Amino acid sequence: MLPDLGPLPPPSPSGSRGSPDPEEDSAAEEEEDEEEEEEEEDEPEEDTGKKRRASARRKNPAKSSKRDAGSGDEGQGGGEGSRQKDLSDPRRKRGRPPRVDTPMEIRVKNVLKALRKLKDEGDGRLRISTFEKLPEKKEFPEYFQEIKDPIALDIIRKNVKRREYKTFDHFIADMELMFENAKSFNEDDSDVYGDAVILQEEMRKAAEVERAKKDEDITGGEEGERGNKPTRLPLEKVEHRGETYRVGDWIHIINPNDPNKPTVGQIFRTWKDHEGQIWINACWYYRPEQTVHWAEKKFYADEVVKTGQYRDHHIDEVLSKCFVMFFTRYSRGRPKGIDEKKCPIYVCESRYNEIEKHFNKIKTWKSCIPDEVRGQDYELDAFEKQQVLKKLPSPILHLLPENAEEGHPLPDAKMGVENAPPIIGAVFKRARRDNVSLLLLRFYGVHCCGSLVQFKV
């Protein structure tokens, strides 16, 4: 018997249609994990979080990572032989896009790597860790009054990751600014001032070494690929069959498992290999019938879901362009200048976890798209009146076995060739929850075993 906890709060607009879906959790945690994984991919292995004023407190860099469990990809057979085989396959599964750095970006990373080697002779701390973040405004308001252009290493790294630096000198200028700010604000005999002087001198030496290198002597590739490190020359754009493709473009890719349903993806990388072949890396988006879900789950028409699959494809596998919109904008209009007859438009609301076989509603759309285009937006041709999006029953509901029961193991999707989505997904039976009880659980919590248990919304 549930206690009387007063009237229910108004329902969320996005969840007002149909019954609440027990598979759809808050995406905040998963999005944070994905963001952390992306940051960790580019983060150096160093202590972080020390404040500019030589605070003794540091963040613990050791974090649990869902990278291995969530991607379900490399080395699943176990053993070094399996790993070497995976590394030699240009289309192997990935949990994130490959690194494809320009010679300028490699120079930048080499300078940062050189600075990470400098340690204090006394306590062994990394000198660069002092410059990781700006001081807290509440703790040091005078810093922001005195320093007109505050900048820290985390800001510089984010600029590197998002390819804000168009030249090596632009990056060096920001590094110089960071060290000059530290020298200007701190006393000459302070540890921070001393660190700034030593690091600035080392940075200038490293920068000169990098400037002396020829572009052709600097190879791009993916770290961890022992011995034969493939050379990848990043491309700003790719011309193919009369179309121009760039990072951020939505595309249809050949689907050998079902030619009538091309794979929907978004380009994250474009490059040319050492043989002159052109490649793209795309994040796959599955159609509802390619997922495993409970029998009563409903989907929008033309819905796709974001996966954790980032796959390499030869440019010849790219068929045409398409477009994917976040569901909050999909109901308000369509991208200006796009002909839906030539460029199909899909709607996306959720991420799909293939391992757990569940869906998480996306909290922020920008967390799903490439860094290079997060600051861009498209113009919307707005509808006269916002549309009400209705959800439809599962397109593979007929696959539910007649003898399916709640306690049965979750089924698997039917797989086909390696570098394509499943041939067909599957459905399973799950106990339907009472709507009122579920809302109470989500918004208020319930008394359990004599104590109040709170549930995140």
SSE diagram, text form:
Elements: H1 28-42, H2 67-71, H3 80-88, H4 103-116, H5 141-146, H6 153-161, H7 168-185, H8 191-212, E1 232-234, E2 238-240, E3 243-245, E4 250-253, E5 263-273, E6 278-286, E7 292-294, E8 298-300, E9 303-314, E10 318-326, H9 327-330, E11 333-335, E12 345-353, E13 358-361, E14 380-382, E15 391-393, E16 426-428, H10 435-443, E17 446-448, E18 451-453
Parallel strand pairs: 7-16, 9-12, 10-12
Antiparallel strand pairs: 1-5, 2-3, 4-5, 4-10, 5-6, 6-9, 8-15, 11-14, 12-13, 17-18
Helix pairs in contact: 4-8, 7-8
How far from one another are the termini? 22 Å
Radius of gyration: 25 Å
Which word captures the global form? elongated
- CATH topology name of the largest domain: SH3 type barrels
* Count of distinct strands: 18
Whole-number total of structural domains: 2
Which strand-content bin applies to the residues? Answer: 15-25%
Low-pLDDT sequence parts:
1-92, 223-230, 433-437, 445-457
Essential attributes:
457 residues; alpha+beta; Histone Acetyltransferase, Chain A; SH3 type barrels; 6-stranded mixed beta barrel; 10 helices; 18 strands; elongated
Structure notes:
By secondary structure, the protein is an alpha+beta fold. The chain folds into two domains: 153 residues, Up-down Bundle (Histone Acetyltransferase, Chain A); 201 residues, SH3 type barrels (Roll), CATH 2.30.30.490. α4 packs antiparallel against α8 and α7 packs antiparallel against α8. The longest helix has 22 residues. The chain starts with 27 loop residues before the first helix and ends with a strand. The N terminus and C terminus are likely disordered.
